[in-house]
Amino acid sequence: MHFTANQGIQGNTFAVTGALGFVGSALCLELVRRGALQVRAFDLRPASPWSDDLKIHGVNIIQGDITCKKDVERALRGVDCVFHLAAYGLSGKEMLQVGRIDEVNINGTCHVLDACLEHGVRRLIYMSTYNVVFGGQEIVNGNEGLPYFPIDDHVDAYSRSKSIAERLVLKTNGRPLKDGKCFHTCAIRSCAIYGPGEERHFPRIVSLAKLGLLPFRVGKPSVKTDWIYVDNLVLALVLASMGLLDDTPGKGRGPIAAGQPYYVSDGYPVNSFEFVQPLLNSLGYEWPKFYMPVSKALLLGKFFAALYTILYPWLNRWWLPHPLMLPAEIYKVGISNYFSHLKAKEELGYIPMVSSKEGMAATISYWQERKRKSLDGPTIYAWLFSVVGMSMLFSAAFLPDVGPVPFFKAISLLFFRSIQVVRMVFLVAFLLHVGESIYAWFLARKVDPANSRGWFWQTFALGYFSLRFLLRRARSQ
């Protein structure tokens, strides 16, 4: 089925839940570009990196909680079509907050469905995930005929909740509305999303690589998974909305997409680590050379899951980093799971408009520019060497023999023979750090003024380990 460019969009009012996120904001702008009468961006956040651009283009931002029924009804009243993108628990620390995941992904979806039926919304497109059918078993070129993965066998709450929510959405398809017409729904099952500004996958990968915390790859090199560029996903969502129109040509027994799920991707399965390698290489970060079998990686993932469960009360604190990996994430990258988008092509006319090569090139350009504007620095090992080393020298030189201080003194004396020499070495090192940090501040005011204060403090802590990155930036300008 093929649709005209703006069919079902011009003159209609749309609501997008989770609209201040990476995909939601891109979708809102595309709907405006195609001539929507009004676009409502419903999100828990009052603002995001994309909110100013949305306001400039006339998008109506509505702050509200998807778990609050009144907020949802307020946002969806008078709407013709809803894109339900709001979700929680996709990756990192969020994956362990089971209560919040169910509240947002299941209860929030119920509120959206109830509001649609109450206010006569005609169309609902639900953004789902491959994980409703994938749970650690190999899937090669799968299709929509595969059964749901058993609810009780999911290793993470996000996948389980998305599976329940998708079933609710699709089962609600065809329900009669108060005006005698029908409510139509469908689901777009997405794989890992990427593109300039993506918030979930690449920032975490780049951060770990920058710190030197990507020591290995998981699974065999032959493992392949799907990725989808943001513009391709937005296209699939828009086409799905058209596929729910009652007046689509050749409808016969109703809208062609009604009650249907669709897999969408770039159509180019690839090993996830190989997919990300060009990005890390372009940023100058070390690429992991070793492979870890899935079985061993799962043991590490379960350790982090147990550790972060203990740390549950502090999961939302900024100072607690994301775990290195969790079991569900290991399955996604360590076991082949890719699907055909043939059904979406035949029924919706979906063809990826941006190739993986083009999408990665745009993403690399974005990250290179982002790196130029940010504070660069060494790996965590340099931090540990410098901070721990200076702390040990100070303790050995000036503190009384309490706690671990005698041990620090013994190590220091092994190298420097006397306390006087230890004190001299510490003072010289301290003065070098002060001088290097002052020089870094003056140099940064010329080559990176936005981060001059950061360069000062980082160089004060790390000395030349930090300064060499600033010198490299100065030489490149």
TrEMBL record:
Residues 15-289 form the 3-beta hydroxysteroid dehydrogenase/isomerase domain. GO terms for molecular function: oxidoreductase activity, acting on the CH-OH group of donors, NAD or NADP as acceptor. GO terms for biological process: steroid biosynthetic process. The chain crosses the membrane at residues 297-315, 380-400, 421-442, 454-471. SUPFAM superfamilies: NAD(P)-binding Rossmann-fold domains (SSF51735). InterPro entries: 3Beta_OHSteriod_DH/Estase (IPR002225), Lipid_A_modif_metabolic_enz (IPR050177), NAD(P)-bd_dom_sf (IPR036291), TMEM254 (IPR028110). Keywords: Membrane, Oxidoreductase, Transmembrane, Transmembrane helix. It holds the Pfam family 3Beta_HSD. Belongs to the 3-beta-HSD family. This is Short-chain dehydrogenase/reductase family 42E member 1. The gene is LOC111480879.
